[in-house]
């Protein structure tokens, strides 16, 4: 198969480029042993059984007893039985290991850092746009010999493990490779790539938080951070730490604040005091971060969408509802007749 053919397979249009980046801010932890699956099941928001007897990737969160986020993670399952790889923010890698070991007790589980591997991301830069040409910009005609079709598959290309990001379609693929491997050169042989478009800009454009910079440790709630929309929480599994508040919030059907993207028509030079966004005398929410002409904020959804355009510090931004959000929110529709937040 020619290089041009492979490039066309990955992109929905020949001229669309892709971005491949080394995520130096991400770290890996291995949890393995006969009790690994049961052990993780009692600590995470998602249901580990979705991947425990197969392969693939899963998004989940670790909460404290008050139901607030401690760690957001991607969990990878390879062909190795009873072994899981946890990807987290490198700043809290040691804290996550300590958290895991605190609940290990007498379970047959080993917990160790995977410092010999790097984490990379591969995504289609078309997804930076508000209205991509296709909602399946990264699936489309992708080469089935190289890329996994969904999050229940894994591909191995010359020792590089390739997983589909389980959170949202436009986030693309996670690639895990040994430190000794020149991953960028291998990818260049397969796809047309560039590095000018940042993965952080992609996330902020989509309104997706990741790591301690966006999801404040011990103060953020999983549903406000769209854990439900990102397929990161199960409401049918058994108990786990922090479940009570999460389940109660979900079943009330009202989540007034959520992480949302900001598109700056005038990027702020001065950020709002204490990151609190006030527009026309109304507290709209809290700013989480700014990158170039986009931002991420925890907003009061109804108020923010009603305003449409808001002031952020000395800047101005448009508030948009992410196109990957559900078209309808069934619980709220049932309770109040509303079709959207």
UniProtKB/TrEMBL annotation:
Q: Which one Pfam family would you cite for this protein?
A: Beta-barrel_CAF17_C
Major subcellular site? mitochondrion
Which is a Gene Ontology cellular component entry for this protein? mitochondrial matrix
Q: Where is the CAF17 C-terminal domain?
A: 256-326
Q: Which InterPro entries match?
A: CAF17_C, TrmE/GcvT-like, YgfZ/GCV_T_CS, YgfZ/GcvT
Say yes or no: keyword Ligase present. Answer: no
**Claim: Transit peptide is one of the keywords in the record:** yes
| Single Gene Ontology BP annotation | iron-sulfur cluster assembly
Listed A to Z, the keywords are: Mitochondrion, Transit peptide
Q: Where in the cell is it found?
A: Mitochondrion
Name listed for the protein in its UniProt record: CAF17 C-terminal domain-containing protein
């Amino acid at each position: 198969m020619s290089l041009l053919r492979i490039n066309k397979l990955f992109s929905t249009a020949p001229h669309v480029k892709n971005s491949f980046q080394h995520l130096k801010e991400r770290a890996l932890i291995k949890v393995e042993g006969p009790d690994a699956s049961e052990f993780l099941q009692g600590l995470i928001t998602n249901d580990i059984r979705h991947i425990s007897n197969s392969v693939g990737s899963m998004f989940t969160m670790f909460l404290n007893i008050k139901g607030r986020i401690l760690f957001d993670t991607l969990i990878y399952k390879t062909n190795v039985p009873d072994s899981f790889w946890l990807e987290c923010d490198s700043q809290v890698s040691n804290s996550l290991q300590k958290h895991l070991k605190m609940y290990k007790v007498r379970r047959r589980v080993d917990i160790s850092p995977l410092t010999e591997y790097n984490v990379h991301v591969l995504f289609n830069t078309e997804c930076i746009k508000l209205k991509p040409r296709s909602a399946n910009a990264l699936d489309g005609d992708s080469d089935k010999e190289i890329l996994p079709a969904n999050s229940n598959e894994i591909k191995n290309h010359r020792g590089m493990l390739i997983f589909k990001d389980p959170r949202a379609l436009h986030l693309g693929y996670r690639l895990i490779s040994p430190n000794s491997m020149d991953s960028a050169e291998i990818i260049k042989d397969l796809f047309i790539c560039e590095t000018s478009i940042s993965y952080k800009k992609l996330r902020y454009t989509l309104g997706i938080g990741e790591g301690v910079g966006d999801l404040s440790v011990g103060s953020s709630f999983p549903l406000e951070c769209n854990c439900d929309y990102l397929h990161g929480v199960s409401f049918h599994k058994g108990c786990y730490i922090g479940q009570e508040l999460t389940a109660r919030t979900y079943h009330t059907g009202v989540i007034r604040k959520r992480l949302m993207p900001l598109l700056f028509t005038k990027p702020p030079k001065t950020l709002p005091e204490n990151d609190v966004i006030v527009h026309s005398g109304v507290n709209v929410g809290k700013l989480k971060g700014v990158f170039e002409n986009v931002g991420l904020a925890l907003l009061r959804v109804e108020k923010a969408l009603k305003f449409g355009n808001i002031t952020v510090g000395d800047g101005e931004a448009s508030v948009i509802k992410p196109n990957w959000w559900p078209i309808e929110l069934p619980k709220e529709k049932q309770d109040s007749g509303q079709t959207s937040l």
